[in-house]
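Form 7-S
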Amino acid sequence: MTSRSNKKPLVLTRVKELSPARCTKEVHVKVIAMECNAKDEGNVSNNATLLVGDDSGCVSLVLPKTTALQVHLGDILCLSGTQIVLKSNRIYLWGGKVERVGEFVLLFKESTNVSNITWVKDPNDPDVLMKLSPRRRAEKLSSVLLGRRNRRKNCLHVANRCK
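Output:
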């Protein structure tokens, strides 16, 4: 009788599919390492942050510094059992099993950084988080600033009328 392994093949998650809705589940991703701060002398933390990505986008990966020092730029990593963490309203990948499966042969898209997306509570349903993209953040900031200017103009205008 032959023994067969009953291992299920890993279902890989694309970087652009990462969201706070998956925070309770472990994900498996195949990514390429693009940046690493493990060798920075100013980084006194026991953890290091790597920018990793695939053809759909990139995300920040937090690993112990001892593990991150073994990862080189261009390494293709298969991350198994990695957790999605929402910290300061942003998404990070945290820990899991890291396996180097190759180097320099994986397309990646650096322009779409999932970790730069801010997640805020939906005003209509506080149990739901929604994306606040960098563009919408800039629009919101400019509208707030313009609103302040307009209020000041109105206040000055009213003050001048009252004199």
